[in-house]
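> forwarded from #structure-qc
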């Protein structure tokens, strides 16, 4: 199920709809995702007592409205001054059992210790003669909680999850669950949340594993789905198994879902994208069209005297292929106006990045003006490589409301773009093959200011995503000068990243909730 944080009545209505559909399919019990009633993560809403009260009212109403089947639903519980990440079995109009989460994750994007109290009590319920133990998400990532369920007599483990996506997460979940199965001998039914919530994307992909750790059922990723898992003699029978996608397709689906839900759940009527003729804006435009439909997307090309003709030609060709609204607004008149306004202040000073940044800021101002006038959201087009080293302009190309490819390294941008063209030709080949350039001065290419992207991305991944020391990165064969340069740029660009719009996380560590480096910082890594 795809929940919306804070839409407690809407989430309850969705749960009830799924319950009716499940009953029609012959289900005995419906397993919902973690905190499905309020959405995940509710963050500091959990400091408000009225938030818990609203959940309690809706849960009671839901229990009375259920058709004749059991349901395990996740919700926040405030009890005797303590707060729990809970799940209750609803049956016959009331709660007959409640489980409280035991393991509270406090790493990566998780900070549940800020909000919840932990419990250590197992909860085993009998459903149609099968003794089912209940766990919630992180409970199965460590030993202990599943063991308590087994010791309390469970034959099957039912797990509610809000497990956010990152590359490799599908295989990691299966590996962790097989470790729990090996330790407890319990088969597992694992229901996962789906949908976009700010920078997080939940990929669904719910599954069932038997006592040997074999997949017996798997639902599609990145979409809502409902399926029956039949348990006979304590073992899940074979059911549909959705085929896994290649990494490029998987990440693209995450981006599409993230954009669709961010705009949809926040009520934006459409998206505006500044098109440049480059690969980043091209991929962002494709994602927006696939997420929202061409009729809700507007592309704006803002050429300067330094814009190459092929950039204009390729942008126009892409617009023809995708069919979105398109405008060209030359920025040379504004450039001349600013030059005249600043002539006295800049007298005797050489031209430098100041003039380049002015171009980016003129474009940002135009896009934001269109956004203000229409209500549509500006999608920024900067990638992770640029965000890492500050190859972006505050209040310029960083201006906007949602950063679609903020966590996509430049090398991955190319891979995903090539994959997207295998689905349908949308990105002109020359956009993919020509050297990338900001086109802010004559003959400019990115590699004038940065190491080759293959080198840059590898160093950023090692240092930023895996916390490898610069000394060890150099030992892997990278030039010390490149490592020093990238690490320095990464650190001095923190102030920019703090002012960047929220963007979709697809790696295990993105520039968001799981990256919290100080802006004022004099620490220097040893080499």
């Amino acid at each position: 199920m795809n929940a919306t944080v804070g839409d407690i009545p809407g989430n309850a209505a969705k749960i009830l709809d799924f319950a009716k559909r499940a009953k029609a399919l012959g289900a005995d019990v419906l397993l919902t995702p973690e905190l499905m009633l309020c959405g995940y993560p509710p963050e500091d809403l959990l400091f408000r007592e009225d938030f818990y009260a609203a959940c309690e009212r809706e849960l009671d109403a839901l229990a009375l409205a259920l058709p004749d089947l059991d349901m395990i639903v996740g919700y926040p519980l405030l009890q005797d001054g303590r707060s729990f990440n809970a799940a209750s079995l609803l049956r016959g109009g009331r709660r007959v059992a409640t489980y409280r989460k035991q393991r509270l994750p406090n790493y990566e994007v998780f900070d549940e210790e800020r909000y919840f109290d932990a419990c250590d009590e197992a909860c085993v319920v009998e459903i149609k003669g099968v003794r089912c133990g209940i766990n919630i998400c992180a409970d199965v990532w460590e030993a202990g909680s599943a063991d308590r369920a087994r010791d309390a007599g469970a034959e099957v483990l039912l797990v509610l999850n809000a497990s956010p996506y990152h590359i490799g997460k599908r295989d990691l979940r299966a590996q962790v669950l097989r470790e729990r199965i090996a330790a407890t001998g319990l088969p597992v039914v694992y229901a996962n949340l789906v949908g976009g919530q700010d920078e997080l994307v939940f990929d669904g992909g719910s599954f069932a594993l038997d006592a040997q750790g074999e997949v017996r059922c798997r639902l599609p990723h990145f979409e809502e789905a409902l399926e029956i898992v039949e348990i006979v003699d304590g073992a899940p029978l074979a059911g549909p198994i959705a085929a896994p996608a290649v990494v490029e397709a998987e990440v693209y689906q995450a981006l599409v879902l993230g954009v669709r839900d961010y705009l949809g759940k926040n009520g934006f009527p459409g998206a505006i994208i500044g098109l440049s003729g480059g690969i980043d804006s091209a991929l962002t435009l494709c994602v927006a069209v696939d997420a929202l439909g061409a009729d809700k997307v507007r592309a704006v090309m803002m050429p300067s005297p330094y814009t190459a003709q092929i950039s204009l030609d390729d942008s126009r060709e892409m617009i023809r292929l995708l069919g979105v609204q398109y405008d060209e607004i030359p920025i040379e008149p504004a450039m001349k106006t600013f030059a005249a306004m600043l002539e006295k202040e800049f007298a005797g000073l050489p031209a430098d990045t100041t003039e380049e940044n002015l171009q980016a800021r003129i474009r940002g101002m135009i896009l934001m003006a269109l956004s203000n006038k229409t209500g549509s959201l500006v999608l920024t087009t900067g990638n992770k490589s640029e965000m890492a080293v500050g190859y972006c302009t505050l209040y310029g190309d960083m201006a906007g409301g949602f950063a679609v490819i903020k966590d996509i390294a430049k090398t991955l941008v190319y891979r995903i773009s090539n994959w997207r063209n295998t689905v349908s030709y949308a990105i002109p080949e020359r956009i993919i093959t020509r050297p990338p350039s900001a086109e802010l001065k004559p003959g400019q290419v990115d590699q004038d200011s940065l190491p080759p992207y293959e080198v840059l991305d590898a160093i950023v991944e090692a240092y930023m995503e895996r916390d490898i020391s610069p000394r060890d990165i150099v030992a892997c064969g990278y030039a010390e000068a490149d490592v020093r340069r990238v690490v320095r740029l990464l650190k001095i660009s923190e102030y920019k990243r703090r002012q960047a719009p929220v963007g979709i996380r697809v790696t295990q560590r993105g520039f968001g909730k799981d990256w919290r480096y100080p802006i004022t910082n004099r620490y220097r890594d040893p080499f």
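QC bot note: The first strand starts at residue 29 and ends at 31. The radius of gyration is 26 Å.
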